[in-house]
Specification:
globular; alpha/beta; two-stranded parallel ribbon; about 375 residues
Length: about 375
């Protein structure tokens, strides 16, 4: 299997004694229009009821829809909770290593390219299977996480919530060079500037989707300050003060939460990948990382899909627009840095750049 840095392949469970999850069957289905030339896979648990929620899952580079699902365990959780799964899949003809083109203006603009294809898939699945259009959620890893950011910005009215795992904020890149630079360090913008990038992507003005952000403190492929920039982006959209999160520890992860609209998990010992607890859901492999915490289940809980949280509305009510002073990003940077400083190993800048360049070359994003 290919072990690319920016969205890997998947291998068999190397941990003896761990239960191997049942392989669920993602089925390919037709849809139109398809300007981005993607494939659509979907999973419908037996006995799925009309009005069920829909979760859209975006794989990383070098992965397939089925491979990433086996690792993260979304279809497993769909069997337990009764929601449908939609898994778009990239084609090598669009990108040599099957990365979603999250940095390409032709693919991230509303009504165009891959973003429009994913939107068409969502509409097709909702109409065909009578799902709840008000309870649609999206998540992705790495390049898939960056593409989830694209969809949440370009089609925010379609989503009740999203989750960005080891990804980047919307507006971080508009070409391959930007992608390289942004992976090394998120562009320096104020929270309001990050929010403006999303506001400029459509005419929508809220209520905005609730957002869960996950990042490993030792991620040498996509720098953790991209998680900080994503926090700033969505805090600005939700008009949340960056100085007011509740901080706690959850299964070894540091969590900052701003009520039911925004949260960020920082995992001190984690590198680049999706954190799972394979005793609960999923199967570990390259960049599907055994972490003792199931990001899949925690994200579903935050979205309101678990029974214990079922009474929580998946989308907050709209509030009148108001002008407020825009808080500095520095506070979030400080809190996240303090939470991980004791365990984060120092990495030389040249080494980081070398890793990122190798990853981009392997992913087909950098030729030389």
């Amino acid at each position: 299997m290919r072990l690319d840095g920016f969205g890997p392949g998947l291998k068999a469970n190397p941990l003896k004694g761990r239960p191997v999850p049942r392989v669920t069957s993602l089925a390919e289905a037709p849809f139109a229009p398809n300007p981005g030339n993607l494939r659509m896979f979907r999973y419908l648990p037996r006995g799925l009821k009309a009005g069920a929620p829909l979760v859209v899952v975006l794989h990383g580079c070098g992965q397939t829809a089925a491979g990433y699902d086996m690792g993260a365990g979304w279809c497993q959780l769909a069997d337990q909770l009764g929601f449908a799964v939609l898994a778009p899949e990239q084609k090598a003809v669009n990108n040599p290593n099957t990365c979603f083109n999250w940095f390409n203006p032709e693919d991230i603009t509303r009504g165009h390219g891959e973003a429009a294809s994913i939107a068409a898939m969502i509409q097709t699945v909702i109409a065909t299977h009578r799902l709840d259009a008000a309870r649609v959620f999206i998540t992705g890893l790495s390049a898939g996480g960056a593409m989830a950011s694209v969809m949440l910005a370009s089609y925010p009215e379609r989503f009740a919530g999203g989750a960005i795992i080891a990804g980047l904020p919307f507006g971080a890149a508009a070409n391959v060079r930007d992608a390289l630079d942004s992976m090394r360090a998120a562009p320096l913008k104020t929270p309001h500037q990050w929010g403006d990038a999303v506001r400029a992507a459509s005419d929508y003005r809220g209520p905005w989707p609730r957002i869960s952000i996950w990042h490993g403190a030792q991620d040498a492929i996509v720098n953790m300050n991209n998680a900080q920039a994503s926090v700033a982006q969505w805090a600005d959209l939700h008009e949340l003060p960056l100085t007011g999160p509740k901080q706690d520890k959850v299964d070894g992860a540091v969590r900052l939460r701003w009520d039911s609209r925004l949260e960020v998990y920082t995992l001190p010992g984690l590198g680049h990948g999706t954190p799972i607890d394979s005793s609960d859901l999923g199967q570990p492999g390259p960049f599907i990382l055994e972490a003792g915490i199931s990001s899949t289940r925690r994200i579903a809980e935050f979205w309101g899909l678990l029974p214990a949280a079922a009474k929580t509305a998946p989308k907050p009510a709209a509030k009148p627009a108001r002008k407020v002073p825009k808080p500095a990003l520095a506070h979030v940077e400080k809190v996240l840095a303090q939470a991980t400083a004791s365990i984060k190993a120092p990495v030389q800048a040249k080494a980081i750049e070398s890793v990122i360049r190798r990853a981009l070359k392997a992913a087909g994003l950098l030729r030389r």
